[in-house]
């Protein structure tokens, strides 16, 4: 799914109105009816609801929804923010319709009025501002937002929590943004919803399809995408009837050191569960029996060192190389990695964990990275590779620049993992859950990405598909137990089901 800046969404709305064609007010009616469906499905029949209405079409949505709900619910109150200027035409028409219906108390809030009473048991429907917000809220709108946030009521935001920008919120006043429990957002999640600092504002968010015109969505260009089932399914290749392990890729994984052999085992499992033909895992001597006992499907390549990686094997037989899980950052290991990169190998690579930490200490290695390299930092590792940032939006911009400048696919791990590609596109992942914040889940991902690279997936496709499957496997695992109890090994165990579910979708 494409993701757009709010200014682009306004253009898609306009195109829909002109080319469907549908009148502005009817599109608003369609949008409002999706809100009403959700609310009726989730609210008790006697729920008291307080609607807050701003001057634009976001307020118009709220007024239309209040009218539709007033037929079903008795406890509805509407407060209109009076900023001393005209409401938008469609909002005005919806105000007239609500007045004509005559079932709802409508009041105005201006600079002199007391703030309305909101009980903690109420639902607040936030229709103050949506995608037309042009600057941070101040004065009366900010006062109303703070009053709502302090009420303890359940807040349902229409389209965007009022006060939140659709993209960059670096200059925003965090106290003047609605803290919603749920955001019912139209057609597309907004980019700011996918950044960690905005989670307190959006709460959980739900996309409401309002049937914007597919031609407009197709024509409008964007660097931002959301990997849904459809995207991931398209990337997944079928296995051919005459496939054999010799043509499904041979992966080399360099992982593990004294005390961190589990990382090598988990990454090996992830790799072998992702469809690769053969896997060789290169480990220090002490890891030999651990590896062979834990995962007999992997072949072992043994380092000359007892304790750590120091020297890679001949790379000729391998289709892709993964390096990093449990590697440690000792000098000898660093020298070993450097020697390997200086071989100017032209094999796709995935670098994780201590591989990234070594890269951060030796930034001159960046130019040695082969084409089709994937780096998989979490925010801390990314800060070491670049520099610390103040917020997720800045990190996102930095990741996109980093991927373009260095010609690598950068997998910035976290909720909605962002995959920045050398072509300037950025793909947010839709699967996964907080249970994945557990030891070893990154090692499993490295293994999956390595397995896909070895099978011939391009680095960008491997990253998008691998991250999706990794999250999906974790979601399936959590369905059977809980986020708290999720082990990285549960992710590998559910990878099979993830592949099957994706194929069936
Ligand atoms: N036809 C459409 O365009 C559709 C729009 N929809 C709704 O319309 C919304 C967008 O509507 P609008 O473009 O009217 O925008 P908003 O409803 O966000 O409000 C814009 C108004 O607020 C004012 N404003 C902006 N920032 C302000 C600030 N910081 N302080 C005080 N006033 C400020 C603007 O001058 C303008 O009058 C969407 O979020 C969505 O809820 C939906 O009804 C679907 C269809
Ligand atoms: K809103």
From TrEMBL:
Catalytically driven reaction(s):
(6S)-NADHX + ADP = AMP + phosphate + NADH + H(+); (6S)-NADPHX + ADP = AMP + phosphate + NADPH + H(+); (6R)-NADPHX = (6S)-NADPHX; (6R)-NADHX = (6S)-NADHX
Cross-referenced NCBIfam families, in alphabetical order? yjeF_cterm, yjeF_nterm
For the ligand (AMP), the binding residues are: 413-417, 442
Write the record's keywords in alphabetical order, separated by commas.
Answer: ATP-binding, Isomerase, Lyase, Metal-binding, Multifunctional enzyme, NAD, NADP, Nucleotide-binding, Potassium
Q: Which organism is it from?
A: Prolixibacter bellariivorans
The name this protein carries in UniProt is Bifunctional NAD(P)H-hydrate repair enzyme
Instruction: Give the EC number.
Output: 4.2.1.136, 5.1.99.6
Q: Please list the cofactors this protein needs.
A: K(+); Mg(2+)
What are the YjeF N-terminal domain coordinates in residue numbering?
A: 9-218
The note on the cofactor says: Binds 1 potassium ion per subunit.
For whether the record's keyword set contains Lyase, the answer is yes
Assembly and binders? Homotetramer.
